[in-house]
Design brief:
With 657 residues, the protein is of the alpha/beta class. Helix content is 39%, strand content 17%. It is elongated and about 110 Å long.
Length: 657
């Protein structure tokens, strides 16, 4: 049958329309619809950065509106769990601080599996192996510091324990900041830090600030001097405000690297648009944009901000996200309890406790140096005058448990009394070979850790004629202008009084005559300060207190003499309690303080006379063997100490403080 040209054309046209109809109804054959509408993002990314990302994304993805809820990770997660309880997460995309949150939501079945094609340039360690989330930025935790306030550039997390910065160090609140919680958990996993490190931070008065931007601002303002912050915050502040005195370092132990994950929720109301946002953030363009904002990128083909090593070059402190997730609640709880001053069971495995009367400033410096040398061991200090230390120990003996591992007392009468009570451990370290026998217990229960030498200090402006000995204090022209400590409080003074009482040239007659001159009763350090200020003319004090004052103020009008009749030399003993719960670590501390390095440091930091013959003493003495020393019978002092205290109070009264 012959078909006309018009009919043929009609059939062809009908076939064409049929084909078009088929194309439009067969899945995959039609043109893909352009994503549009609203994407809701819950995030902890700082407002200035996420607002810029919103602008860039909406420029690229016309028709998609990004709505943002931004807060700290803790508040973001609180909102998410509240919505889960209500039946559905209202967000399409979640972009938070650390991988534990991604893993937590994945395990709870709240995420949509989506492996962005842009993730090919991201190393496997920064992606969930199952494809539910991927790192979208890297938070490098660093030490930020105020360059005007901090004299020596920090190098380590341990620098935050420096007593010079007490009360001037900060950390973002782990209950609010995911990055801070991740950092705390990572350091807790480290053998060299652990919970003991945070216990020491608490002792050093660390301030807990709400979030990292506020912490960074406080350091820049000088309100705080140092803290663990995020690199891009400090770097961005330096770039924006070049004259602000703030800088940062990557710690020697390695930076805590916090991968910040992005994920789509399973209940997303706009999945395709949500995917475009994730793709944009992970794309080379998106990562380059973030790098320009100072944020470390996750892609290998994007150069990090200036001064930041690549992920493959950076020294990173190891962390286990799965372990961090499992311990997250415990970490938050223990941190909160530690920073409420509570003793947390199992959180002090590497901390030894020292009871001592060594002056606070000195023992803090020694503790810092020891902790830096003995990596992984920390020292908790109870520091009071000798009488308070003895009282505490005796109360604990009566209760059946001494809480300390070691004691470092002012004089050997304290150590002798504890030895007699059977609470000390005999321990003779090899370092003791360089210590003269007179300065150590023959059975090894204690060893002098330093020497306190009692001297006569005087004001060089008000005292005419350099004094020669203790008896110069009996001159009536110094009525009310003399300083003296009391054996009621001070171990060195017990030793001083007991030594002069045993000497025929002094005895109680000397102290009764001294009482007529109405000396002021206070600590040796206070006596030294008052002589230097001119409030007192002269007094009996400890030699190192004068040396320390002159180190700080070389022009101060103060000097001292070693009395011609002889000096009272007070050995300050270190001993270990036999029931120490950290016995090996306690031995390490004792050995360190008796070592050549420890004794050299004690001399250089504190002006103490060292007990080792192979360590030269401070100025004025070439050797302790040169000094003329008034002999002392320690057992006599122990036998008469109560009698001495009573008689001393009768003559001089009580010390007011």
């Amino acid at each position: 049958m012959k078909i006309s040209k018009g009919a043929l054309a009609g059939k062809i046209l009908a076939s064409f329309f049929m084909m078009c109809l088929i194309i439009t109804v067969i899945p995959g054959c039609q043109k893909k619809a352009t994503p549009s509408g609203r994407v809701v993002l819950y995030t902890s990314v700082p407002a200035d950065i996420i607002d810029e990302i919103k602008v860039e994304f909406e420029k690229k993805q016309r028709g998609v509106q990004l709505d943002i809820f931004r807060s700290g990770s803790g508040e973001v997660m609180a909102k998410i769990y509240k919505e889960i309880d209500a039946g559905k997460i209202q967000a399409d995309v979640i972009w938070v601080a650390d991988f534990t949150i991604g893993e937590e939501l994945k395990n709870a079945g709240q995420l949509l599996k989506y492996e962005s094609p842009q993730a090919a340039q991201i190393i496997p360690q920064l992606k969930d192996k199952d494809g539910y989330y991927c790192a979208a930025r890297l938070l490098d935790m660093i030490i930020a510091y105020n360059t005007d306030k901090v004299r020596i550039k920090p190098t380590s997390y341990r620098d935050l324990l420096n007593p010079d910065y007490k009360g001037r160090v900060g950390l973002a609140d782990p209950s609010y900041s995911g990055a801070s919680l991740y950092t705390v958990a990572t350091l807790v996993q480290s053998e060299k830090h652990g919970w003991d490190y945070f216990g020491r931070l608490y002792e050093n008065g660390i301030k807990i600030i709400k979030d990292n931007p506020s912490l960074d601002q406080a350091i820049a303002d000088g309100e705080l001097w140092m803290g663990i912050s995020i690199d891009y915050l400090t770097r961005g502040r330096k770039i924006k405000y070049p004259n602000v005195p703030i800088d940062y370092v990557f710690p020697d132990e390695g930076a805590v690297l916090v991968p910040s994950p992005i994920a789509i929720t399973k209940d997303s109301q706009n999945i395709e648009a949500a995917k475009t946002f994730v793709d944009f953030v992970l794309s080379k363009q998106g990562q380059k944009f973030m790098s320009a904002q100072g944020v470390a990128p996750v892609r290998l083909d994007v150069t990090p901000p200036s001064g930041i090593p690549t992920i493959t070059q950076m020294r990173i402190m190891p962390s286990d996200p799965a372990k961090i997730l499992r311990s997250k609640k415990d970490t938050t709880r223990i941190f909160a309890e530690l920073f409420q001053g509570k003793q947390v069971e199992g959180a002090s495995d590497t901390t030894i406790t020292l009871y001592t009367s060594v002056p606070q400033a000195i023992i803090e410096k020694l503790r810092q140096d020891f902790e830096a040398q003995a990596s992984g061991t920390y020292v908790r200090i109870f520091r009071k005058d000798t009488s308070a230390v003895e009282k505490k120990i005796n109360e604990e003996i009566a209760s059946g448990k001494i809480e300390a591992d070691l004691i470092w007392a002012a004089d050997s009468t304290v150590a002798e009394a504890l030895k007699e009570k059977g609470v000390l451990l005999p321990f003779t370290p090899p370092e003791a070979a360089e210590i003269p026998d007179i300065l150590k217990d023959k059975e090894g229960y204690y060893h002098a850790g330093g020497l306190l030498i009692m001297v006569v200090a005087y004001n060089t402006n008000t005292v005419i004629g350099k004094p020669t000995g203790y008896k110069d204090l009996l001159d009536s022209k110094y009525l009310g202008r003399i300083g003296l400590d009391t054996p009621e409080k001070s171990g060195s003074q017990i030793y001083f009084v007991g030594t002069l009482l045993q000497d025929a040239d002094f005895g109680w007659e000397f102290f009764k005559a001294l009482g007529k001159n109405s000396p002021q009763l206070q600590s040796s350090a206070q006596t030294t300060q008052k002589i230097a200020s001119g409030e007192l003319d002269l007094g009996i004090t400890i030699d190192f207190t004068v040396r320390e004052l002159l180190k700080e103020n070389p022009n101060a009008p103060i000097n001292y003499i070693y009395p011609e009749a002889g000096v009272v030399m007070v050995p300050s003993p270190i001993a270990i309690f036999k029931e120490s719960r950290h016995l090996e670590r306690a031995k390490v501390f004792a050995r360190y303080m008796l070592s050549k390095k420890g004794q050299t440091l004690l001399r250089d930091l504190a002006g103490f006379v060292p007990v080792r013959l192979d360590v030269s003493p401070p100025e004025r003495i070439t050797s302790i063997t040169q000094l003329r020393v008034i002999p002392t019978d320690t057992n006599w002092i122990r036998a008469h100490r109560d009698e001495m205290a009573v008689e001393f109070i009768k003559i001089f009264g009580y010390r007011k403080d």
